[in-house]
Amino acid sequence: MRRSIPPRENEEFPVRQVIIIGSGPAGYTAAIYAARAQLEPLVIASSVQAGGELMNTTEVENFPGFPEGVMGPDLMTKMQEQAERFGTEVVFDDVVSVELAGDVKKVTLGNGDTHEARTVIVATGSAYRKLGLESEEQFSGFGVSWCATCDGFFFREKTIAVVGGGDSAMEEANFLTRFADKVYVIHRKDTLRASKIMQQRAFDNPKIEFLWNKEVAQIFGDQQVRGITIKDTVDGTETTMDLDGLFIAIGNDPRTHLVHGQLDLTDDGTIAVDGRSSRTSLPGVFAAGDVVDPHYRQAVTAAASGTVAALDAEHFLAAANDGELIAAAV
Ligand SMILES: Cc1cc2nc3c(=O)[nH]c(=O)nc-3n(C[C@H](O)[C@H](O)[C@H](O)COP(=O)(O)OP(=O)(O)OC[C@H]3O[C@@H](n4cnc5c(N)ncnc54)[C@H](O)[C@@H]3O)c2cc1C
Q1: Mean pLDDT of residues grouped by 10 in the chain (330 residues)?
Q2: CB of 152 shorter than 6 A to ligand 1
Q3: What is the C-alpha separation between 290 and 304, in angstroms, rounded?
Q4: Which of 85, 125, 230, 284 is the most exposed place for a label (fewest CB within 10 A)?
Q5: Which major enzyme category is it (predicted)?
Q6: 151 given a catalytic annotation
């Protein structure tokens, strides 16, 4: 027999229908759908990174509905407002631990509060690996990018560089030659990690030139990137070169540390979900956005994935409620 879960009246926080961890496009879209389904979601938005990755960029030109483009932070503010309009509660704190097994899930925040819910949607995104230079942050969205699909269009007839030696670096470099006049690939070794076919495609591309045994030591410019200093990894010598943009393609890490040991992960390090659904390895726990996506990682795909998670949570709760009614009747 299913156990009924009433609100715990004397406790500080009621047991929620749904808690959403993360406030990027996936988290806020899940919140919009859950709120409109009367589930009164609680979004734990993060203390310093609320709004997700698009807070780090300027113009977004590929999110549908904005023919003139939209600034990343403006888009995320609109998503937040849309979620709140339907009754979403947003808390600007970080989740420090979760207990996801069982009928009631526990979510503990940095301020010590523990919230409980019957379902949890994990929408914690993923982080592009960085070079670790201060100037990288300074020029993020102003010539430094981690996403050729997102930003390649801004570099028509420009000279740019891609950092990295794996498949995604080769893919980005090839893609960027559709726009740029010249694409340098900067790699710290003299051989690539990329598959042979991806390497060959890059070698055959007349717009791509490889700079072997080099790493980026500094990025400089004014409002925009104007060039970089590169350091030879063999003899340590430094040279500067003029550039209009720098794409960093050295990897991406799904933010899964909260759920390690609780949810199954894929070989790519993303949270494993069942087919096209958002169902994870634990009942009542759903995952959406870049944290489940090793390939597409776009705002609109994350938003769509948030929709799937909210609908899956809604169906799970409806089925659980039906089970409780049937159990009460027998
Ligand atoms: C510089 C840059 C520019 C981009 N430009 C474009 C573009 O032009 N077009 C496009 O379609 N895509 C673009 N992207 C990709 C796009 O931003 C992502 O695909 C999208 O944001 C993924 O959404 P998400 O909700 O899955 O994750 P995210 O946006 O990463 O959001 C995850 C959220 O979860 C929060 N979180 C993580 N851990 C915790 C925790 N423990 N507690 C509380 N909160 C937590 C994070 O702080 C963050 O707020 C860009 C990415 C970058 C980095």
Answers
A1: 43 90 98 98 94 90 95 97 98 98 97 97 96 94 93 96 95 96 97 93 97 97 97 97 97 96 97 98 98 95 98 96 77
A2: no
A3: 11
A4: 85
A5: oxidoreductase
A6: yes
